[in-house]
Amino acid sequence: MTVITPIVNTVAPLTNVAIMQELVGRLRDRKPHLPGIGCFYGFSGYGKSIATTYAANKLDDRAVYVEARSTWTKKKFMDALLGELAPGVNYRSRPVYDLIEIAAEKLMTGRMVLFVDEADYVVDRGYIEIIRDLYEIANTPIILIGEEDLPVKLERYERLHNRMARPAPALPCTLDDARHLTRLYCDKVEIADDLLMHLLAEVTGCTRRVAANLDDIQEEGLRNGWDKVDRKLWGERKFNTGAVVARKRHS
């Protein structure tokens, strides 16, 4: 049902995976009078998509995942959603209001959780009310995943906002997360905690950059014959922080 890349269970201990799992459980197990739209938000690179993919895979065929695009209209969004809910069935000639009814019926009968990634685009393109329509008909959990200011954007839509549960913020990569990522991506060279803490500070907790730099550390360690590397041994070597290094003009 949900066409997303599987992730092995080894990401389970990561902080943001646990936060998303808690949000999914809270919405699925909520009492009938409680709101069922969730929001998982945070800075780019914090691992929101990894956490979402893991949660969706755990639900198997009770999850449907749509990643919005910056150019999508409401019609394109609904086409994409129904492409996940009913692959191989062509609804493209139907008007949007019909597509909403069809999709909501499938969500309801399948008792599914709908994950909408890059939900900022849904707000910015002006069709966020579709989410409220789907929820009102299906009464199934819907989780919006987006950037750090997504909850503020959603406050402008009162009829949607008062159907939302408490937002769940994605958190910066922790030392425990970095240790676990080391076991996943840097299994040939041991990295001391003081170097991991230095890395976390340099990349400001961006999980994606932590993972990328761990690979660089391992390559450097293998080139130098290190079994273990700490802050002192690493020395003044630079990490990839995303900062652009200015080129000097030669006279």
UniProtKB/TrEMBL annotation:
One of its GO terms (molecular function) is ATP hydrolysis activity. Residues 35-150 form the ORC1/DEAH AAA+ ATPase domain. It holds the Pfam family AAA_22. This is ORC1/DEAH AAA+ ATPase domain-containing protein. It comes from Paramagnetospirillum caucaseum.
